[in-house]
Amino acid sequence: MVALLKRLTNLSVVPNVLQSPTQYRPTKNGFATDRQKLKGDVNKVTSTFNRNIHKYGNQKYSG
After folding, report:
1. DSSP E strands: which ranges in the chain?
2. How far is CA 16 from CA 6, 10, 23, in A?
3. Is there a smaller number of Cβ atoms within 10 Å at the N or the C end of the chain?
4. How far is 45 from 37, CA to CA, in rounded Å?
5. What is the pLDDT of residues 2-59, one digit of tens each?
6. Distances 55 to 46, 48, 51, 52, 62 between C-alpha atoms, Å
7. How far is CA 13 from the centre of its chain?
8. DSSP SS3 for 14
9. Helix (H, G, I), strand (E, B) or coil at 25
């Protein structure tokens, strides 16, 4: 228990963490990038639906 408490209270790693912070991906224009990707996905789904509707027509589900 004492060893665990010593590990938890060991603050010698703090300077190392502060000197080399984690590198995150840049968030500049993040929403614009997400919007473009979503718009591309919507276009792909729409074209697939249109192609399948054209291919199979207005058939009822007979499952």
Report:
1. none
2. 18, 13, 14
3. C
4. 12
5. 787 777 677 777 777 778 877 877 778 888 888 999 999 999 999 898 888 888 876 6
6. 14, 10, 6, 5, 17
7. 30
8. helix
9. coil
